[in-house]
Design goal:
The protein is an all-alpha fold and 133 residues long. Helix content is 95%, strand content 0%.
Length: 133
């Protein structure tokens, strides 16, 4: 049993180390890609003016993509929020209806019990009178 726990602990440590290694490799890949892109961009055989114009265009395109993405996210979030509010309202209405139905049933049951008690008492009194007479 102790050996099994030690082995599980060791396997967990190996999994953690593998995850850490993958994170480091992924980060290095991303950093390398960014550095490579920047180096390629600035070592291209273009004049400074052309390079600045290309960079400005790419930044503008990137900003437009971000703006479009943000607009889509806002719309989707609004749609989801609206749907959630509608579902919440429907659920609230169902709960209110069920509670009202339960209250009506409780009222009817209470009245029926009271009526039954009155009838039982009347029958009981009638039986006592017959027994006494």
């Amino acid at each position: 049993m102790l050996f099994k726990k030690m082995q599980e602990k060791r396997e967990a440590e190996i999994r953690r180390q593998k995850k850490d290694t993958l994170k480091k490799v992924g980060a290095a890949f991303i950093i390398g890609s960014v550095i490579s892109s920047v180096a390629t961009l600035f070592t291209a055989p273009k004049s400074g003016k052309e390079m600045r114009q290309d960079v400005a265009e790419k930044v503008g395109e990137g900003a437009e993509l971000v703006k479009d993405g943000a607009t889509k996210v806002v719309k989707k979030t609004g749609d989801v929020l609206h749907e959630a509010v509608n579902k919440g309202q429907e659920l609230k209405d169902k709960v209110i209806n069920k509670v009202q139905n339960k209250l009506e049933i409780e009222k009817i049951a209470t009245e029926a019990i009271a009526s039954a008690e009155e009838k039982i008492e009347a029958v009981s009194e009638a039986l006592e009178e017959k027994i006494e007479s």
